[in-house]
UniProtKB/TrEMBL annotation:
Major enzyme class: lyase
Modified residues (N6-(pyridoxal phosphate)lysine): K153
Native source organism of the sequence: Chlorobium ferrooxidans DSM 13031
Pfam families linked to this entry: PALP (PF00291)
Underlying gene: trpB
An annotated GO cellular component: cytoplasm
Keyword set includes DNA damage: no
Record protein name field: Tryptophan synthase beta chain
Residue stretches making up the Tryptophan synthase beta chain-like PALP domain: 119-443
Length: 458
């Protein structure tokens, strides 16, 4: 028994520090498993083919995942690269969030609003006709498009506005690309009678006109950003400048798992409800967990919100993030994880599109929500650990997938979500009919109709 304790300690230590050395992990795990088999102490959760699990592309570290650390680092990514004027704000926000996490009344109010105001839990829908037409895996859609305001963004906006109220802030700012986070922030500010200012690039204002009108109708001021590429990156930069100039009275509701600590952690935690619901729903409907889970990745909040719940599963579920390949990876794109380099963007160490001089390059995607030259630091860490695989979908492929889903299931999804739908459509025929793919359908497509009409010549 003493030997088992020692082996267990070694396993816990080396499966994290040396996760990239698969041969070493396999050695320790085989010895560990053999010892438990001899002693008759094998855990019930080991009823899978243990050797297949060990030799899979996912290391044992999946069962031990814990991030960020106290300084906000996801491995070498994340952290706080911010001016002195924002240090106190970030520290105050982190402290208040920790208090809220341990406050049952906070959770009770948030859960009540998520149920009665947002409409949670959102359905997990079996896309039966689409699955049948493809002739392979069964595709299930997590219907975040059915949330109040039409996307997953409301989950995070609602949680953060409750933090703003706890901190006594009366002025709220936000950035937005596709407009869904802007609409969600304007919505919760209207609900709690708070002054709301949303920064949005001029290019995104042009292609997301319906959401601009919705924000204004909800009482928000939409400030156009004309610098740079006039998209999400520039809107985020302007919002941070506003926060720097008005640190005392302003609460900044960041819409994705980007930016300085504690935002990537806070946004992930508020979006984790997506994966939590999906786990119970797929077990209730299919009797087991899925083989593959996929979601689109721009900043990455809908993807982390879905993936986080499943990072500790053994055997591991295949998690696939889908970036925007735009016009193709040889042309204009927004595939930061695929082709980006490590650098600092908006207060965090991450992977981003940059030139040889370290200057941030313009990203491109037909979907405004994926048109961002960086990505959340946790995604960089998950890629580094091998816990999530990242691929990409072009503009044209996303449009084709959107059209296919609309024609087979009567669901018009957001262009962002269509990137993940394309992956599912191409992957399903290569799998058996007993296999299961879950797609996080992060938003609805009414905001994109002008682009869809133009691009598909409708």
């Amino acid at each position: 028994m003493f030997l088992l304790i020692i082996l267990n300690a070694i396993l816990l230590r080396y499966s994290i520090v040396m996760a990239s050395d698969k041969s070493l992990n396999i050695f320790f795990l085989l010895v560990y498993d053999a010892c438990f088999s001899v002693k008759g102490l094998r855990q019930k959760s080991h009823n899978h083919n243990f050797l297949n699990y060990l030799t899979s592309s996912h290391p044992m570290v999946a069962t031990l995942y814990s991030a960020p650390d106290k300084a906000g680092h996801f491995g070498s990514f994340g952290g706080k690269f911010i001016p002195e004027t924002l240090v106190k704000n970030a520290a105050d926000l982190e402290l208040e969030y920790i208090k809220a996490k341990n406050d049952p009344l906070f959770h009770s109010e948030l859960n009540l609003l998520l149920r009665d105001y947002v409409g949670r839990p959102t359905p997990l829908y079996h896309a039966g006709r689409l699955s049948s037409n493809l002739g392979g895996a069964q595709i299930y859609l997590k219907r975040e498009d059915l949330c109040h305001t039409g996307a997953h963004k409301i989950n995070n906006a609602l949680g953060q506005v409750l933090l703003a109220r706890r901190m006594g802030k009366k002025r709220v700012i936000a950035e937005t690309g596709a407009g869904q986070h802007g609409v969600a922030t304007a919505t919760v500010c209207a609900l709690f009678d708070l002054n709301c200012i949303v920064y949005m690039g001029e290019e995104d204002i042009r292609r997301q006109a319906p959401n601009v009108a919705r924000m204004k109708l909800l009482g928000a001021e939409v400030r156009a950003v004309s610098s740079g590429s006039k998209t999400l990156k520039d809107a985020t930069s302007e919002a941070i400048r506003d926060w720097m100039n008005n640190p005392e009275e302003t609460f900044y509701i960041i819409g994705s798992v980007v930016g300085m600590h504690p935002y990537p952690m806070i946004v992930r935690d508020f979006q984790a409800v997506i994966g939590q619901e999906t786990r119970s729903q797929i077990i209730a409907q299919a009797g087991r967990l899925p083989d593959v889970i996929t979601a689109c990745v721009g900043g990455g909040s809908n993807a982390v919100g879905m993936f986080y719940e499943f990072l500790k599963d053994a055997p591991p579920i295949e998690l696939v993030g889908v970036e925007a390949a735009g016009e193709g990876l040889q042309g204009r794109h927004a595939a930061s994880l695929t082709l980006g380099k490590t650098g600092v963007l908006h207060g965090a160490m991450t992977k981003l599109l940059q030139n040889e001089d370290g200057q941030v390059e313009e990203a491109h995607s037909i979907s405004a929500g994926l048109d961002y030259p960086g990505v959340g630091p946790e995604h960089c860490y998950l890629q580094e650990l091998g816990l999530v695989t990242y691929t990409s979908t072009t503009d044209r492929e996303a449009l084709t997938a959107l059209k296919t889903l609309a024609a087979t299931e009567g669901i018009i999804c957001a262009l962002e979500s269509a990137h993940a739908i394309h992956y599912a459509i191409t992957r399903a025929p290569k799998m058996t009919k007993e296999s299961i793919i879950v797609v996080n359908l992060s938003g609805r497509g009414d905001k994109d109709m002008e682009t869809i009409i133009r691009e598909l010549s409708l």
